[in-house]
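Figure 2 data, in text form.
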Amino acid sequence: MIDYELGAVQARFADIIWEHQPVSSGELVRICEKELNWKKPTTYTVLRKLCEKGLFVNEDGAVKALVSRDEYYSGKSTQFVAEAFGGSLPAFIAAFTSGRKLSEAEAADILAMIEASRT
């Protein structure tokens, strides 16, 4: 089972992997040193934690995603709706839209998504 809980630093690191995958672990260390100012042990520690969460794999020095960025955020959204709204998508939409008015384009997009999901 995938653990969808990522802190800000882990999420940024995951984005780096998604952007560069498949990436050698050595190249990942160089990227993280440049973009995050991390040392090699930090990169490998965070990588190990994300591998344990089921998001990535480091095999033979190559790091690649087991879960795409879109799959991750879809799962995270589903988990949020389940936890915060008892799995009720209508309750989520009601909460999300309360206090703000949808534009015609937003309403049309949402209706199109609903129709597309029914077929």
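Caption note: The chain has two domains: 8-69, 88-119.
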